[in-house]
Amino acid sequence: MHDEHAIIGSSQSMAEIHRLVANTRISEAPVLITGETGTGKELIARAVHRGGARSRQPFFTLDCSVLNKNLLESELFGHVKGAFTGAVADKKGVFEMAAGGTLFLDEIGEMGLDTQVKLLRVLEEGTFRPVGDPEEKKVSVRIIAATNRDLKCMIQKGSFREDLYYRINVLTIHLPVLRERKGDIPELIAYFVKKLDGRHGISRRFAPEALGQLAEYSYPGNVRELRNIVERVFMLCEREVIGIEDLPPEVRRGVKRPAAGCDAGRHNVSLRQIIERTEKKMISRMLRLMNGNKVKAARMLNISRSTLYAKMEEYGIE
């Protein structure tokens, strides 16, 4: 039985990932996980943490790409009251909160050079200084870093420190893109459907031809995109068996259209009318499923809120 953070896939490339994750258990050295967006870097980081000596200790995640320099340093190292405008109280950073455990630094390639220097100090000396605090603190934390960028290229351009690179790159795990392990797609789909069945109490399965079409798609967003597609189709389809016609347009592209004389031709319905009817039905159903929450509905439909509002107005959806 797969748990919530299982590493799914039995292809040769995934067997190698399992081997590399297992090898990280014999050491507490830093781990660098590389791979495209959506390949599952945090999933692997959690697996490394669970298999190590610190598995019973905290696991914290910090995405370095979503914060500016000042906020990132505050999140990493904490700050004292009055350190900067808005610092109305002392705050612990993730290094202090993750003490004894593991800190996963996602998208470390987005970290500025000044912050890289301070991170290097923690890695080499086990000490850090909260923003605005003259006193240093000691900490023991295992670092797992991840990036979708070419750090060696960044070193050559001067945007990433070479000494930090070699400090975090003791053990390396590179995740393959989904289009290079298409044999794992049916197993991944089965896993996602089983989770959705359990969560929503409804049964769905993909028709063989739909599974075949899903296996042919290139997935520029990797496993994350596959999961999103499966969940969206699962929620929108009102039948037990999900067919090719229920798949998103980008996945259906290349599927042969019905020949003249089939139902669509006899009813003389234009392609635009079909698209409009389908869109209206999908939006209305998703809004019902999300209890009218437009933010969640837009996210599930993989469109922006402004697009959702425009479509609702166009189709007269309340």
What is the string of helix and strand elements? HEHEHHEHEEEHHEHEHHEHHHHH
Biggest beta sheet summary = 5 strands, parallel
Number of helices: 15
Strand line-up across the major sheet: 2-3-6-1-7
Number of extended strands: 9
Please state roughly what percent of the residues sit in beta strands, choosing from under 5%, 5-15%, 15-25%, 25-35%, 35-45% or over 45%.
Answer: 5-15%
Low-confidence stretches: 257-269
- Over the alpha carbons, how many angstroms does the gyration radius reach? 24 Å
Measured distance between first and last alpha carbons: 43 Å
Task: Average the pLDDT over all residues and give the rounded result.
Answer: 88
Overall geometry:
globular
> Structural class per helix/strand content?
alpha/beta
User: What fraction, in percent, of the residue positions are helical?
Assistant: 40-55%
What does the model show?
With 318 residues, the protein is α/β, with parallel strands linked by helices. Helix content is 47%, strand content 10%. It has 15 helices and nine strands. The strands form three sheets. Strands 2-3-6-1-7 form a five-stranded parallel beta sheet. The radius of gyration is 24 Å and the shape is globular. The model is unreliable at 257-269 (pLDDT under 50).
List descriptors.
318 residues, alpha/beta, two-stranded antiparallel sheet, five-stranded parallel β-sheet
A few lines on this structure:
With 318 residues, the protein is α/β, with parallel strands linked by helices.
